[in-house]
Amino acid sequence: MAVFWPRLIIAAILMTIEGAALGALAYLIQPLFDDLFSASNMVGVGWVALAIAGVFGLRAVAGFGQRLIVVSIGLKVTTSLQSRLLQHLLSLDLAYFRSTPPGALIERVRGDTLALQGLAATTVMSLGRDTITFASLLTVMLINDWRWTLLALIGLPLLVLPMLGLQRYIRATTAASREAAARLSTQLDEIFHGIQSIKLNRLERHETGRFDGEVRHFLREALRAQRGLAANPALIDLIAAAGFVAVLYYGGAQIIAGEKSVGQFMSFFTALALIFDPLRRLSNIAGQVQAGVASLARLYEVLEARATILPPTTPQKLQTGDIRFEDVHFSYGDTAVLNGLSFTAALGKTTAIVGPSGAGKTTIFGLLTRLVDADQGRITIGGQPVDGLELDGLRDGVAMVGQETALFDATIAENIRLGRLDATPDAVRAAADAASVTEFADAMPLGLDTPVGPRGSALSGGQRQRVTIARAMLKAAPILLLDEPTSALDARSEQLVQEALTRLSAGRTTLVIAHRLSTIRDADLIVVIDRGRVIEQGTHAELMAMNGAYARLEALQSAGLMPLL
Ligand SMILES: Nc1ncnc2c1ncn2[C@@H]1O[C@H](COP(=O)(O)OP(=O)(O)O)[C@@H](O)[C@H]1O
Ligand SMILES: [Mg+2]
Q1: What residue's CA is closest to ligand 1, atom 24?
Q2: What is the whole-number distance in angstroms between the Cα of residue 234 and the centre of ligand 2?
Q3: Count of H helices and E strands in the chain?
Q4: Residue 366: CB within 6 Å of ligand 1?
Q5: Is the pLDDT reported for residue 560 higher than 70?
Q6: Is the dihedral of CA 225, 226, 231, 233 positive or negative?
Q7: Residue ranges per structural domain of the chain
Q8: Structurally, what CATH architecture does the domain formed by 2-304 represent?
Q9: Per-residue pLDDT tens over the stretch 319-348
Q10: What is the distance in A from the centroid of ligand 2 to the CA of 362?
Q11: Which residues, at least 6 apart from 396, have a Cβ–Cβ distance to it below 8 Å?
């Protein structure tokens, strides 16, 4: 902020010039009528005309300059605020993003900062320029006749109470309209992300209808807010009318009686006519500040959110070793997900996790990487609890191929490089080779430089998955987490990827969540979980001998029934 002071001072000087110009204009009217017109002094009239032209020229330059300065400062502050907001948002827990829709966040980072900037710029301009204009015109009025001035403006104090009421109304309605804007953005975001199911289920009309409903809601709220903002100037106009009438009667009588000159009256009337315009804007400042406060409050809500998953005060370095879950409990709100989960994934070995959908398998990966923290129990790597480790080190030590689309709107190569930003092009290509990415990429005209489209939409599900596998290959972390890595693949790609994964998992501590027994069979340990706890564990042979849940699954899959446990 401090860097803006010199420019703000220049802006203030320019505003003073701009504001004083109108005072000078009103002041010049009096000699025009009293001394020059009556004396038929055309040369004098010419000089006054020149002076008025000069005043307006100066006003134009000053107005242009100060507007430019104020708006550019506003833009700089807003854009840096946007960057700061994003930086802060990225430090927050995953849970925050799960509970706040992306559209609403976008609306805060973009919409609220822009609303704030627009209001701040007009407020600063108004405060500077309009106060000076008001003061200069008031001076001209007082020079002419203080009684007239009093008469003209006596109604102003009457406005204080209604305006105070309006402030509260404006603040509330603006907050509601910003909230409605956030809902609009949320809905748009969901529509565009869900475009495929919308088309397939022919929901276009339904979605448009839903959107129309939200638009109407937004419109209602926005209009209410604008009504509040528009009421201020209207109040001023009422007072203005009363002022004009009073001065016209009282002053007119004085002129007819010969006590005052026409020039004085014209000069005063010009000043009076001009003074209500800045006054109207000044009266709006309080309203605009209230509207700004509504946006600011929403931004503060974001800035005040705090991450709960933090690095420990004395963080340990990640050591390689067994991964151990000991009596881990975890719930999302009231929904218990893990209920005393215990198992050990041995160093350098592959551990498969099998269980029905919703059993808590993916949650295990979230806990291990500290996307979420356990409510109870211990999770350790090499004997060290994960919440005692450096957070960066922990995340560096884990490569994950997840279920969620993890591609960004960039090229295939750039998406792979996200695994290790400083990787050489050769290393990227090697990873692409190993994950069978080159196999399909080389058939594309641009090869690895082919753009993948928003969220990878230009690739097939299997291709996307192979790109994320290549990314994990490039990351070459000691711990590998695979969440149904071959679920999106056809039989042939599955085989290719399976081979790639076998190469990748060699020597790394690997946890793989899988449904297909072909993926699981060779694992060093198979952990079967159900409703958040381990119900069976052992090698394939041991579990078959046990003749329990796993054996039943095997029987069904061998019969070609492919149940997803
Ligand atoms: N962000 C969330 N908020 C609330 N509940 C969740 C969330 N993520 C997952 N769950 C619930 O936790 C349970 C386990 O989820 P998950 O670990 O993804 O299961 P899966 O074994 O299919 O991978 C599910 O019942 C799911 O509804
Ligand atoms: Mg899952």
Answers
A1: 358
A2: 60
A3: 21, 10
A4: no
A5: no
A6: positive
A7: 2-304, 323-558
A8: Up-down Bundle (1.20)
A9: 989 999 999 999 998 999 999 999 999 999
A10: 4
A11: 318, 477
Task: Report the CATH architecture of 323-558.
Answer: 3-Layer(aba) Sandwich (3.40)
Higher-scoring residue by pLDDT: 391, 37: 391
**% of the chain residues with pLDDT over 70:** 98
564 lines ligand 1 (CB under 6 A): no
Instruction: State phi, psi for 538 to the nearest 5 degrees.
Output: 160, -175
pLDDT at residue 181 tops 70: yes
Q: Looking at ligand 1, which atom is closest to the CA of residue 357? A: 22
Establish whether residue 251 lines the binding site of ligand 1, counting it when its CB lies within 6 angstroms of any ligand atom: no
Q: Is the pLDDT of residue 563 over 60?
A: no
**Whether residue 362 has its Cβ less than 6 Å from ligand 1:** yes
Compute the distance from residue 337 Cα to the ligand 1 centre, in Å.
7
Q: Phi and psi dihedrals of 143, rounded to 5?
A: -60, -40
Residues 509, 512, 517, 520: what is their CA dihedral angle, to the nearest 10 degrees? 10
Instruction: Give the C-alpha separation, 180 to 217, whole Å.
Output: 7
Q: Which residues pair with 323 in a beta bridge?
A: 345, 381
What is the dihedral angle through the alpha carbons of 225, 227, 228, 231, rounded to the nearest 10 degrees?
A: 160
Q: How confident is the model at residue 478 (pLDDT cuts 50, 70, 90)?
A: very high
The residues facing 384 across adjacent strands are 381
Q: What is the pLDDT of residue 565?
A: 45
Predicted confidence (pLDDT) per residue in 450-465, tens digit: 999 888 889 988 888 8
SS3 for 379? strand
- pLDDT, position 60: 94
User: Cβ(357) to ligand 1 under 6 A?
Assistant: yes
Nearest to 511 by CA among 549, 544, 485: 485
Which atom of ligand 1 is the closest one to the Cα of 529? 21
